[in-house]
């Protein structure tokens, strides 16, 4: 493929889950997704809507996603927040408060949840689920083996350079996955060690992330933070809107493409398209500024990339027989 792919991944989930720790999840953001879909289509880009449980049973979202699938203008994949995805299993005294990682649950419960979500999505949208992102970016070898068992072809849970161990889940757990030494380009992962390429059928497509500082500066900053009793992951920039960061996103995309990568990967949460659906975009003016930034980013990418869903990118890699980008 001469032209790199632009992969748009949307974690499609309930409203402002950063704030909502009560268990009363709402899905009003489903009514705000068409505007983004239309912007993608303006540039011939094709988003992958990685769908969580509460959205998979929301009638407005179901109609929206079925239309996207019917017109082949995007894809529905699977996203899984363990604390509110059936079947129910109480891991902590208050799972909604702690939002435990799926990989912290007993293996038999992990399998039940993956099986349930896969069946629900496939029956609802009448299409095979092949794309996936883990809730809260928590991924491990057993999870990868389950995805292969259930027929998934591509995962995008890896965030290179980011260590989620400092982000707690269950109080008795060890935090999330440490991705600081994972590859930055697509690779068929090793199911015995997901940090390295292997011979499995599951393609890993890491997020497009660049370090904010040099390696030396990151080391110094982490050492200084540790002395102050604050353990943090290295500072990074994502291909992800945070409000007024369009040039930063372009820089991430430019550096990623300059490294020879055959894709760049963007992400956002579905609730971030709705006023007050996230801590970042709190009102209509924030949303309008978000769309101005998105339009500028997409315009920059339009002549440098070609839009693909995750499934299309995985199919292209499979046809080429490439084990790593």
List the helices and strands and how they pair.
Blueprint: E1 5-12, H1 34-42, E2 48-51, H2 53-56, H3 59-70, E3 75-80, H4 95-98, H5 107-125, E4 131-134, H6 141-149, E5 154-155, E6 187-190, E7 193-197, E8 203-204, E9 209-211, H7 215-227, E10 236-238, H8 246-258, E11 263-269, H9 284-302, E12 306-308, H10 310-320
Parallel strand pairs: 1-2, 1-11, 1-12, 2-3, 3-4, 4-5, 5-8
Antiparallel strand pairs: 6-7, 6-8, 9-10
Biggest sheet layout:
10 strands, mixed
The oligomeric status of these chains comes to single chain
Q: What fraction of the residues are assigned to beta strands by DSSP?
A: 15-25%
Number of strands: 12
Keywords:
single chain, TIM Barrel, ten-stranded mixed β-sheet, 16% strand
